[in-house]
From TrEMBL:
<feature type="region of interest" description="Disordered">
    <location>
        <begin position="1"/>
        <end position="28"/>
    </location>
</feature>
<feature type="compositionally biased region" description="Low complexity">
    <location>
        <begin position="18"/>
        <end position="28"/>
    </location>
</feature>
<dbReference type="InterPro" id="IPR027303">
    <property type="entry name" value="Gln_synth_gly_rich_site"/>
</dbReference>
<feature type="compositionally biased region" description="Polar residues">
    <location>
        <begin position="1"/>
        <end position="17"/>
    </location>
</feature>
<dbReference type="InterPro" id="IPR008146">
    <property type="entry name" value="Gln_synth_cat_dom"/>
</dbReference>
<dbReference type="GO" id="GO:0006542">
    <property type="term" value="P:glutamine biosynthetic process"/>
</dbReference>
<comment type="similarity">
    <text>Belongs to the glutamine synthetase family.</text>
</comment>
<dbReference type="GO" id="GO:0004356">
    <property type="term" value="F:glutamine synthetase activity"/>
</dbReference>
<keyword id="KW-0460">Magnesium</keyword>
<dbReference type="Pfam" id="PF00120">
    <property type="entry name" value="Gln-synt_C"/>
</dbReference>
<protein>
    <submittedName>
        <fullName>Glutamine synthetase</fullName>
    </submittedName>
</protein>
<dbReference type="InterPro" id="IPR014746">
    <property type="entry name" value="Gln_synth/guanido_kin_cat_dom"/>
</dbReference>
<dbReference type="InterPro" id="IPR036651">
    <property type="entry name" value="Gln_synt_N_sf"/>
</dbReference>
<keyword id="KW-0436">Ligase</keyword>
<feature type="domain" description="GS catalytic">
    <location>
        <begin position="123"/>
        <end position="464"/>
    </location>
</feature>
Length: 464
């Protein structure tokens, strides 16, 4: 696959529709928005009139080098490498353009050096390299996101404790969905126009919480769609007088919101699905078992990516269905890796769901880490632990050892240390990205180490 810029016709832009058809834009857009998801998971954007689209793609727009160490609160983790000097370029990938509405077209950008070569700090290029490595090893991957988010009336979205949490709520109920069905109808139309296939929409367990599932795609395309989907949700919500909140923990005493990641692997030579059709437990192939084992082996250090925000650990708690124990199991929502078998009720086939991911994660780095861990597991014939069939806390110490069951590190500094010292993460991401994320996390600890959950959740409620 390639993420190189490819020019399109200037008079119109087409969008791939679900099912493979293509539809022209209503008319030529007036504005082009290019986004870059930084290492803190925040979506940054630059915009140009449509007539400057090719300049955005070929020459790029300026991005100060210190953007690499942007924190989620807009502070920078400045050091000798990242300071007021130096510039990078954001280059629009015109091959991935999608419509936000009839006036605005969106596209992802790649972070490049001044000479146009890919920057070693670019998350999207990092994922493209991981995808290429998978193909060279003989595998193709599919990823799909499930996003949980709150919908709050705009008039009270900034209040520390809106009164709406005192009103009754029916988790998975029809009535709460009816209250927002116009919003979801408009969101579905917008997603269709942007070429994003939505698979399921429903209310969630948490008060004012909803979930939408996006159809799976190849790695870079799936991450692109994750970025675009969040933009569509926010834009649609604003038009309905609402604020969409994707924070992993927007309120200290309310349910957290996840960004679950579904993942499947196929052997290119035979078309064999690695997570079904084998003679292992639950029908796993040997390679599928090794892939799951590889992911499980590296989840602790990958917490810095999957659940790395200043509020993520407030969500990652036992008995909340957040997958707060490192382990795997069939349809088990209390372990980090939920295995979904190939059954009639699973039309896309067997896959694993990473429960610990949230919407503050950089989707490109999240998928790059998971894919690389799975490939390592296959290459090293990593042995698969026993599956976890119940609540992790209910097992004896010996049973936990058999399942590789351990709690996630719940200390921000320990996660930083594990990530920074991991030889695997440095091999997958490169020293540049790892060192930059460590610098960002150290600044977070320095700034917010003594901040209360009440203040922390309020400060970061609307960042992602």
């Amino acid at each position: 696959m390639s993420i190189q810029n490819a020019a399109l016709g200037a008079s119109s832009i087409t969008t791939d529709q679900p099912g493979g058809s293509s539809a022209p834009a209503p008319h030529a857009p007036e504005l082009v928005q290019g986004t870059f998801v930084d290492l803190a998971g925040v979506t940054r954007a630059k915009n140009v009139p449509a007539r400057r689209r090719e300049v955005f793609a070929k020459n790029g727009l300026g991005a100060p080098k210190v953007w690499v160490v942007f924190n989620a609160d807009n502070n920078f983790a400045e050091n000798d490498t990242f300071n007021v000097t130096g510039d990078l370029r954001l280059r629009l990938d015109t091959s991935a353009l999608r419509h936000l509405d009839e006036h605005i077209v969106w596209g992802p950008t790649n972070l490049a050096n001044q000479d146009g070569t890919p920057s070693k700090y670019d998350p999207r290029t990092t994922l493209a390299i991981a995808e290429r490595r998978a193909e060279e090893a003989g595998y193709s991957a599919q990823f799909g996101f499930e996003f949980e988010f709150l919908l709050l009336p705009e008039s009270i979205a900034d209040e520390r404790r809106p009164d709406i949490f005192a009103t009754p709520w029916l988790g998975y109920g029809a009535q709460p969905f009816i209250e927002q069905d116009d919003f979801f109808a408009d969101l579905t139309v917008a997603a269709d126009a942007a070429g994003i296939e939505l698979e399921q929409l429903h209310t969630e367990w948490g008060t004012r919480q909803y979930e939408v599932s996006v159809a799976p795609d190849t790695p870079v395309a799936a991450a692109d769609k994750a970025v675009l989907f969040k933009l569509l949700v926010k834009r649609t919500a604003a038009r309905h007088g609402l604020r969409a909140v994707f924070s992993p923990k927007p309120f200290p005493d309310q349910a957290g919101s996840g960004g679950h990641i579904h993942f499947s692997l196929t052997k290119l030579a035979t078309g064999t699905h690695l997570f079904s059709g084998g003679d292992g437990v639950y029908g796993l192939t040997s390679e599928g078992g090794h892939a799951i084992a590889g992911v499980q082996a590296h989840l602790a250090e990958l917490t810095a990516i999957l659940s790395g925000s200043p509020v993520s650990l407030l969500r990652l708690q036992p008995d909340t269905w957040s997958g707060a124990a490192i382990g795997w199991g069939l349809e088990n929502r209390e372990v980090a890796i939920r295995y979904a078998a190939a059954t009639l009720g699973n039309p896309r086939g067997a896959n694993i769901e990473i429960k610990t991911g949230d919407a503050a994660a950089n989707p490109y780095l999240a998928l790059a880490g998971l894919l690389s861990a799975a490939l390592d597991g296959i290459a090293q014939s990593q042995p698969l632990f026993h599956p976890t069939e119940g609540i992790p806390a209910s097992f004896t110490d010996e049973e936990k050892r058999e399942r590789g069951l351990v709690p996630f590190p719940n200390d921000f500094d320990e996660i930083t240390r594990l990530f920074g010292e991991s030889k695997a993460t440095r091999r997958w991401y490169g020293d540049g990205i790892v060192d930059a994320i460590v610098a960002i996390r150290n600044l977070v600890r320095e700034t917010y180490g003594d901040t209360s959950p009440e203040d922390l959740t309020y400060l970061f409620r609307h960042v992602w």
